[in-house]
Amino acid sequence: MKLLSKIHRTTEIFNGFKADRKGGIALMTGLVFPIIFVGAGGAVDYNNAITTTQKAQRAMDSTVLALAGRDLSNIDIQTEGDRLFRSVLESQAIPSAPLDVQFTLNDRVITGSGAVQSKTFFLGLLGMDNFTGRVESTAVPAILQPIEIALVLDVSGSMGTDLNGEPRIERMKQGVNAMFDTLDKVLPDDAELSASLVPYSSSVNLGDYPQALETLSITGEPRPLPGDDVWAAERTQNQNGTNFTINDASPIGRPVPFLNLNNFDPTGDFPEAPTMPRLAALTDNIDGVRTDVNALTNAGFTAGHIGMAWGVYSLSESWASIWPQDPRPADEANKIIVMLSDGQFNRTFNIGNGEKVDPLHSEAYFQEMCQVAQDRNITIYTIALNLNAVDGAKLENCVGPNGAFFSADSADELTNVFEEIARRLGAIRLTG
Question: What's the maximum distance between 2 C-alpha atoms anywhere in the chain?
Answer without folding.
Answer: 113
